TrEMBL record:
Organism of this sequence: Paenibacillus artemisiicola
Protein name per its UniProtKB record: DUF2961 domain-containing protein
Any Pfam family the entry gives: DUF2961
UniProt-listed Gene3D superfamilies: 2.60.120.1390
Superkingdom to which the source organism belongs: Bacteria
Length: 368
């Protein structure tokens, strides 16, 4: 049933034929038009890789996708440099936004790298089911994104220079209709560069309407010593006030790990990164290479983690708020911490959605 609407395609449905129409948008066919791809010329002649990418002008917002529905975006791929001679945080300086059905405010507003679980303005390999980032900087998304009237996706360049070599491809299907229960994809970025002691960090709040929460990405810079991940994640839904309906047991537990991710190697205790289809800890770094020739490589410990609720979505009928605590352990007792935490929350819901908080200015998004 879902496959007929372009929302699902697995091994069991692979043989099934439908009336859906496959389209693709890239720099070689920017409108996804029938029989219109690859017409530009290179030094090899017409239709020989004449326009595989584009340049993002400094300060401009470019529309990547603008199509009528009904349809479903099924996969998209983007790659771009992570630095220029004007700065090192391109992946935080570019902002991706998505608008469904002619809405005025975006349903997705996230720095490009963080959307693909590459926080801190740094590349890392991610090997999960809905998000995959492959060497070198090949960013892929497989979250289905249905739209009934229209889909518009933009990229804004707030970097200090033009960025050449922006490659992209959006693969989508046009269908006769979508199921009534198909929700709209949303994603929101937040950051507190210093959290408040004993106050939970908020990933999302004021989500109204029916939907389900499908994922979390955290870019966590530890600013205090000892173990940083004792905080519990909390899901407040449908009338919860002081106490949540769902409360986790610890940060590393929520991301599918245990006991601080620690293993003993060469006589030392180390945190061990990992990637799995639904949860992972792909990034663990204590070095900064942006100006290592001048300042060395010392940095605060940085941790990137993802958790996909695809097999266990957090369903809500009317409202949702998600928070996580900042607590540590010094081997003797718990203690309240203040750290630098960024997040991306991913969810589906019926429209309209509540307006997002104002996205922080570009320099305040840069990693510590």
């Amino acid at each position: 049933m879902l496959q007929n609407h372009g929302l699902g395609f697995g091994l069991s449905t692979a043989p099934l034929m439908t009336n859906a129409k496959t389209r693709s948008i890239s720099a070689e066919n920017p409108k996804g038009e029938v029989g219109a791809g690859g017409k530009e010329a290179s030094n090899l002649g017409i239709a020989r890789k004449g326009r595989p990418c584009m340049t993002l002008k400094q300060g401009e917002t470019v529309t990547l996708v603008d199509v009528d529905g009904p349809g479903v975006i099924q996969h998209f791929w983007i790659t771009v440099t992570d630095r220029t001679d004007k700065g090192y945080f391109v992946l935080r300086d570019l902002v991706i936004r998505m608008y469904w059905d002619d809405e005025e405010t975006p349903s997705v507003e996230v720095p490009l790298g963080d959307f693909f679980c590459n926080g801190f303005g740094a590349r890392s390999v991610v090997n999960s089911l809905p998000i995959a980032v492959n060497p070198t900087g090949g960013m892929n998304c497989y979250f289905p994104m249905p739209f009934r009237k229209s889909a518009k996706i933009t990229i804004e360049n707030e970097h200090a220079a033009d960025i050449g070599g922006f490659f992209y491809q959006f693969n989508y299907t046009l269908v006769d209709e979508l199921p009534e229960e198909a929700g709209y994809f949303h994603a929101q970025w937040r950051r507190e560069n210093i959290t408040t002691a004993a106050k939970d960090f908020t990933l999302i709040d004021h989500v109204k309407g029916k939907g389900h929460y499908v994922g979390t990405y955290l870019a966590w810079a530890a600013l205090e010593r000892y173990w940083w991940g004792e905080g519990e994640i909390k899901f407040y839904m449908d009338g919860d006030e002081e106490w949540p309906t769902i409360c986790g047991t610890g940060t590393e537990d929520y991301f599918g790990g245990a006991w601080c991710f620690y293993e003993k190697r060469d006589g030392k205790i180390v945190e061990v990164p990992y990637n799995t289809p639904y949860l992972g800890y792909p990034y663990n770094s204590r070095t900064d290479t942006t100006r290592s020739d001048i300042f060395g490589e010392d940095s605060v410990p940085m941790h990137g983690l993802y958790r996909w609720h695809l097999m266990d979505p957090i369903r809500f009928e009317n409202e949702l708020k998600v928070t996580i605590q900042q607590m540590g352990h010094n081997s003797r007792a718990l203690f309240e911490r203040t750290d630098d935490v960024s997040s991306v929350a991913y969810w589906y819901q019926a429209e309209p959605h509540a307006a997002f908080p104002t996205l922080p200015a570009v320099q305040t998004r840069w990693p510590r």
